[in-house]
Amino acid sequence: MKANREWIIKGIALAVWAGVLVSSGIAFAQHRQYKEAVVLGAGVVDVRTLGDYFEPLKGTTNDCNIYILDSGVPGGTLLIMGAVHAEEPATNLAAQLIVENASATTGRIIVAIHENRSGSTVTRPGDAYPQFFTIETDWGEKKFRMGDRWANPLDSWPDPETYVHYPSGQLLAYMDVRNMNRTWPGRPNGSLAERTSYAFMRLIEEEGVDLTIDLHEAELEYPIIGTIVAHQGALDVAAMVSMMLTAQEFTIGMEISPLALHGLSHREIGDFSDSPCILLEAPEPFLDRVRGVTDEALLLTGQDEFVMKAGEHGLLYWPIDENGWPIDIRVARHVRTIEKITELWTRFHPDEAMVVAGFPTYNEMVELGVGHFFHDPSTVSQDRVAFE
Amino acid sequence: MYAHAGIVLGVMAGVFALARLFKITTELSMLAAAIGGAIAHGGLISPRHIADGAFTYFDVTLIFITATFFMNLLKHAGGVDYIIRGIINRFHRHRLLCLLFLTLVMLVPGALTGSGSVTVLVVGTLVGTVLTYMGISKDRVAAIIFLCAAMSAAAPPINLWAMMAAAGSNMPYVGFFLPLGVISVLGALFSMFFLGWKGTPVQLDKVMAELPEPAQGMAGWKVLLPFVVFFGLVLAGRIWPWTMPTLGLPLMFMIAAAVTVAVSPKRLPIFTVARETVQGLLPLIGVMVVVGILVQIMALSGARGLISLGVVTLPLPVIFAALWLILPFSEGLVQYAAAPLLGVPLILLFNMKGINPIIALAGMAVMFPIGDMLPPTTVVGRATTMAVGFKGSYYRGFVKRCLIPAAFILLLGTLYIIFGNELSFLVAG
Amino acid sequence: MTIMIVYYAITAFFGAVLFWNFVKSKDVQKAILYLVILMPFVLRVFRLK
To answer: What is the ipTM of this complex?
Structure first.
């Protein structure tokens, strides 16, 4: 009798367990396999993949699309990298908005929307991130994957017991071997993130990239926020952009890339290639550890009572009020800053001119919403649609 | 939002208490609390949050299982008895030297891997048995093993709390060696000598008669070889980080386990040992998986934010006065996640107030691992009591015995934070 | 890649041990806990998470 009861309870437990497992398994698989449609704007002349620059990456999760916006007019080459940290969605939205709307009129723009695509196929255990978020467009809702700071362990397993950065030898926490903004300049036989960094370095070399822009978002508790971090090779441009935007449009700081912090794009890309790197940080309250309810609304509106309270206690490095930091503003800051950088770069380096067109204005993006600038993939020829 | 997060926390506490009242185990009561909290947050949530949360400490779980599997194979092969006989034979007349040697043996595994659990699982049983034969009571032995393991996790070069908090606050993990080294070695020596100095002299003949005879064919090299292979692999990864393939700790333990099986003088029942390993670790890994789920629901509902906000908005003098409680208890609650959760905002706060952030973070990073004996996770504490075979009351026996050395370590940590600037000369090292 | 496959094998091995202990456990509370612990092992082996 007792044995029967034991087996009945175990059977029920097994059934419930299987239910949770199947349902969550489906949710994880749907998230990992979901493809975001990208409508190629008129400026896009070619779509390559990262594996074209480093063969061993071909066909892997991180063989991300490389969008080439070429004016055909000789000039400089700009590389824009989005979503190195896939939990910072304003970065891939900004990169995609540029691919769908912008063009180069002098020189070239090269864009990677999901620089570390593996990271966009997983969310962080224990942090309760939503798996997807949707943006209202003029033609309906457009769905995007939410991701993580680190590459997916399904693509990069195991981690070492401690991560030794190449080539500096600096010690970092073990999981940072999957953090692409700690693996620059990368190495050909390293972890997935190291190999991906290495592939981007090859791209920079092969395409003769003159300037690289790496897009990020940060929690308001983090001191490097609302700012431009620049390698010494781009200090003049970064300082001028910061001054002009702050004086005329919105506040944005400027910092010099620290020499002692290794593995970061703004340090290593400039040190190991001919392209200086500029990193942009927008404020994302969703990432703050003191945040309240973790949901899509917080991700998109950036409104959070707990984060505001932390601000009242002087614990934040960036202001926040009840309006929060909506995704439209965060994307607009990135897009507008990039445009301004190209203007100033062209002024400082006329022989490497980057003249761009089709960038929406800051006010347009904030007032109409970023969704207004995403195009309906069902209304264009399918050879003008790429998938992320 | 305050009311919502507060209600969720209240429901969690209520469900936990109710489940315990109905004689449900601690682990399943915590699972019930997590599900209760999830329902209070928003009705039926997606089950993927349960699975997602269950993954939070998956890496650590795998390390626990493989390390214990390796040590259990070695025990079955008779290797552990062999080493204990060897140490007692060599050191039975020199208590001071023996205690110093055992402190060193305890500090190495955690210093290299950043994990106190690895220390306990790899050398805990061995050192614990030697200490027992030195006439030290089981509760004291368990306390020594735990505290030395905590200090080994804190010891440089790898201190995960400091690394995670440094990464989260944009500080390079540089200059920590001496600050962490001084405080962790002091803490380990104090724990070892305070709890282990008094005892009875080792009666060699009696001990040798009591200890099981090593298996026939067992030899020193057969016992040492798996350890040499394990530490060799760890060191090789550090010396040639870019040519050695990344093995990870679980595989290193499995390789050491394979070496143990290969050189064992008798045939080892691998599947049975694996079953015993998982059985023995059930409370430990069960708590880790369940706490992961709990943490996920707390993050989802804002309850985690409420706790975090409550801590970081305390006035600075209160933080100084309460950090010795807050840090260990946060570690007890969320394990390593305490470092980004509280460590980062606190270190940024200290930096803002002009306190040397490296010294302050070193002080904090030594206080966190003390919490590994505290509820709800009690991870390293429970591993310790299991490793040394302590059968008494967990809290009134083991935890109580840890209190004085733990208070000493926490005091050192607090002094580091308060006198961060005065101690900044340590950073140069 | 080889090392990653070895990791899947290790995970599958201990997953099987966990499931066997679930089957053999007489204590239902322990049995349920085995299942909860088993969850990440199964999802990892099937490359879902």
So the answer is: 0.97
